[in-house]
Amino acid sequence: MKYPVWPRYGSFMQPVVDNRHLTVATLEERPFVIVENTDPSTGVCVRNTVPCRKQTNSSQSSDGLVDPYTKLCCKGFCIDILKKLAKAVKFSYDLYLVTNGKHGKIVRGVWNGMIGEVYYKRADMAIGSLTINEERSEIVDFSVPFVETGISVMVARSNGTVSPSAFLGEPCVPLSFCTFIPCFLQMQIGNTILF
Asked: Which positions of the chain have pLDDT values less than 50?
């Protein structure tokens, strides 16, 4: 935060701004970000959670004023990373949940979700389980991925085992007469052509 930043497409470095309070957007997605209500008796966050807010249409506070935000508490894997990052880099943050509950994609020329919050500078950064794709990486910068998804293909389990030679068909199994004949013929033809 105290280092100059060279803009992606500009020719001059941006001046050093030593602002140590960031606005951070997030999105509820268990186990990465888990949202809970504040303690009903005290109104504060407990049990290893951090304060976060969610924009509401209207909610009246105790002093009669309209509060546009609901106070909530956030925890989870990404929140733990945010807390450690804030401690290591020494910054404070204001955490809020995106209003549309989306990761971010372009709809009719406008970005939404967490990507839109960062792109339109309503948030300094976003934290959550975001997938890095070409479209998103052209407009915002990502950190190094900290979770591998391990996406794979799934098939039903069979009751028996499948022989390694099953693809050869019934009569032709490895080391049988019908597999040796084509190999022998191929060697003879190859030797005749080469020599």
From this structure: none
